[in-house]
Amino acid sequence: MVNNFKLLILLIALSSLFLFVGYSLGGQTGLVISLIFAVATQGIAFWNSDKIALSMNQAQEVSKEEAPKLFEITEKLSEKAGLPMPKVYITPERLPNAFATGRDPEHSAVAVTQGLLSNLDEAELEGVIAHELGHIKNRDVFISTIAAILASAISMLAQFSYFLGGDRERGGMLPFIVSLVVAPFAAMIIQMAISRSREYLADSTAVEITGNPNGLASALNKLEQISKAGHQPDSLKPAFSSLYIANPFSGDFFSSLLNTHPPIPKRIEKIMGNF
Predict the structure, then answer these.
(1) CA 140 – CA 134 distance, rounded (Å)
(2) Mutual orientation of helices 122-137 and 183-210 as an angle, nearest 10°?
(3) Which of 54, 130, 156, 235 is an S-S bond match for 59, by CB 3.0 to 4.6 Å?
């Protein structure tokens, strides 16, 4: 409930920012044009996001005969979560990680890396799969798409105004400068906050599904230790970092501020603190 309330506040903030930018820069005409373009481009991405993500990560669909344990765990947890069985994929990546994709529970997929299967025990693997099912159950792809549409529209409005001059008389120069420089960055921050909120919710949903917080907490701890060791992925793509259960790309302090994931120690603290 708390996470959903935070999400609502963040979406309202993003929508309000969009309206402010539209009024300050382009009036109603610029706002409508940018929104239509943003909805169109993000809509295409939404309907094809699963195919793009799976292809770019070299994921191969597997059958129950090819990966019996992974299939058994996913099938069992999907039933407990009240979800249809998603398609199951494995990527050749050596680092442990996983992601879920698909526009709704009926068109969903769960992908895990070879490294995840090699490094995690059964309870930890269950925790990770349950987390990804949590994203599917909470319809996070749809929510992230809405956030992306608004954030993209804000950036498009700012670029449109910069190249065409904008309506700088509307309210004076200050709103124009704020809309051109500050608003796109603020939109990105809000979008990151929405993504972080969904990670916390997926963690909570995972524990509800498995009834075992220790499995997910232990899995996240292993991923944190690997991250601290400085290992970088072979085939995972930075463009899809928000999809992974943990960001596999290490960075400096500034880049951590824009991370799509909350710090793993905080996630583990919340997971263990609720039980």
Answers:
(1) 9
(2) 130
(3) 54
The H or E element containing residue 99 is strand 98-101
The model's pTM is 0.75
Identify the helix (H) or strand (E) that includes residue 112: strand 109-113
HEC-encoded secondary structure of 139-205: CHHHHHHHHHHHHHHHHHHHHHHHHHCCCCCCCCHHHHHHHHHHHHHHHHHHHHHHHHHHHHHHHHH
Residue 135 makes CB contacts below 8 A (sequence gap 6+) with 100, 141, 198, 202
Q: 94, 126, 104, 89: which is closest to 209 by C-alpha?
A: 126
Q: pLDDT category, 5, cuts 50, 70, 90?
A: low
Q: What is the pLDDT of residues 122-131, one digit of tens each?
A: 999 999 999 9
Tokens for 274, please give them. 């609720």
Whether the pLDDT of residue 256 is over 70: the answer is no
pLDDT of residue 113: 95
Whether 156 contacts 32, CB under 8 Å: no
Residue 44 CB burial class (10 angstroms; 0-12, 13-18, ≥19): exposed
Tens-place pLDDT, residues 177-206? 655 666 666 666 666 777 788 899 999 999
Determine which one of 132, 199, 208, 224 is catalytic.
132
132: annotated active-site residue:
yes
Residue 127 near residue 212 (C-beta atoms within 8 A): yes
Half-sphere exposure of 16 (CA within 13 A, CB side): 8
Backbone angles phi, psi at 88, to 5 degrees: -115, 130
